[in-house]
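Continuing the series of single-chain predictions for the mutant panel. This is the parent chain; the variants come on the following pages.
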Amino acid sequence: MQEDDLILPAPPPPPEPCATCGKPDDLCLCASLVPERTRLKLLILQHPQEQDVELGTARLLAGQIEGAIVKVGLSWPSLSKLLGRQVDPKRWGVLFMGSKEEVAKVPRGAIAIFGRKDVLPDSDLILADLEGIVLIDGTWAQAKTLWWRNAWLLKLRRMVIHPDFRSAYGNVRKEPRRESVSTLEAGAFVYGRLEGDPGLQDRLLKPFDTLLDRWRRRRRPVRPVSAAR
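Parent structure:
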């Protein structure tokens, strides 16, 4: 036997991740996403260091809202510049996790608009008049960075939600607080309550359940086959 015969060929390179969502082929759901036509527009600001490519949900949500925009970066001059058209910032809401005290002021399963210190009494009227929402995607620390680096966000209506469910992440990914949910879950919660479509929230959440199921099955150890006796 020649020495060269012992050299094994290099393993094939892993397949390229999806150009849209960045996930590996076995976790990519882009082809199965069905865009929903909604009244509310959607803009997602994603921190460039958001590392959780496999379990991240921003692109899963964007792929289900017709015309949704995802911007990756740290700062932008204004909402109008981001959207490429003039908009009234008061007709856009930004979802930013409130303090524990603020969340406690929002009924479970509801959304409220906060002023500097408290819930605005005309929250329902403001919510009904919104043109779109901005979601911030990243860890809690990354979200705070985007918040403070983009002063124009303070011109938007600050939305605080109090979900009536726990995040499907469970033990897979640690959330900072009990009421914390993923970007997709937060968006689905808001759209489900403001679009007047009772089944919309469940439809938006379904791909997330599929993603987690695939991820768990991939990590499940393969049991060795017992040798025949």
